[in-house]
Specification:
The protein is of the alpha/beta class and 202 residues long. The protein has a single domain, classed as Uracil-DNA glycosylase-like domain (Uracil-DNA Glycosylase, subunit E). Helices cover 43% and strands 16% of the residues. The strands form two sheets. It has a five-stranded mixed beta sheet, sandwiched between helices. A hairpin with a 2-residue loop joins strand 6 and strand 7 (157-162). The longest helix has 28 residues, at 174-201. It is globular. The chain binds uracil (URA). Uracil (URA) binds at residues 44-48, 51, 57-58, 60, 62-63, 84, 166. Uracil binds at residues 44-48, 51, 57-58, 60, 62-63, 84, 166.
Length: 202
């Protein structure tokens, strides 16, 4: 990222939207969405196929699961800021399909400056990192998700670490899916409670 000094979230988003997709054939940058000064900002990995096509975060299968988990945790999505560590879909073409490819550490690092600026404009009470890529972007280095699951102080942000909703879609069977989903809902509830306590303390 060259030297950029946007003065507002709108200006930052304009910069992000003007950037080239990461992979040839990618459609657009997917910007974060939601209110400023929310209790929670949820950070995912990168847009998937549907997000790249529709231009909104978490509108594909992982988003459906995330919406269901938020509803069960008593969280209204319209009150939460939702974004990704990496703003473009990285994929490998396979015939007509575009298969998700995980961004590498260098790519996450390149997008990190934007995420930091974005969160500084959004000013959430608590930043929830969902999965390893979000953790890497927010922490500035890789740390294990499961060992650090729960409340976590990221450099510059009160945070919370949980799994990525896609990991629940990959669970080996129904029992594992159910257990994983319940634990994810419990994390979202705990994060909401923590954010509320930060709000009251502010
Ligand atoms: N997975 C993510 O991490 N982000 C999205 O927006 C969709 C799927």
């Amino acid at each position: 990222m060259k030297q950029e000094n946007p003065k507002s979230l709108t200006a930052l988003n304009r910069l992000i939207a003007a950037a080239e997709p990461m992979v040839e054939g990618g459609t657009r940058a997917v910007l974060g969405e939601g209110p400023l000064h929310p209790d929670l900002a949820l950070v995912g990995e990168q847009p998937g196929d549907q997000e790249d096509l529709q231009g909104r975060p978490f509108v594909g299968p992982a988003g459906t699961l995330l919406n269901r988990a938020m509803a069960e945790a008593g969280i209204d999505r319209s009150e939460v800021y939702v974004t990704n560590a990496v703003k473009h879909f990285k994929f490998e073409p396979r015939g007509k399909r575009r298969l998700h490819a995980r961004p590498n550490a260098g790519e996450v690092k390149r997008y990190r400056g934007w995420l930091e600026k974005e969160l500084n404009f959004v000013q959430p009470k608590l930043v929830v990192a969902m999965g390893a890529t979000a953790v890497l972007a927010l922490e500035g280095k890789a740390i294990p998700v499961l060992k650090n699951r729960g409340a976590h102080l990221f450099p510059g942000h009160a945070g919370f670490i949980t799994v990525h909703p896609s990991s629940l879609l990959r669970a080996p069977d129904d029992a594992a899916r159910r257990t994983g989903f319940a634990a994810f809902v419990a994390d979202l509830k705990a994060a909401k409670k923590l954010a509320t306590s930060h709000r009251k303390a502010a």
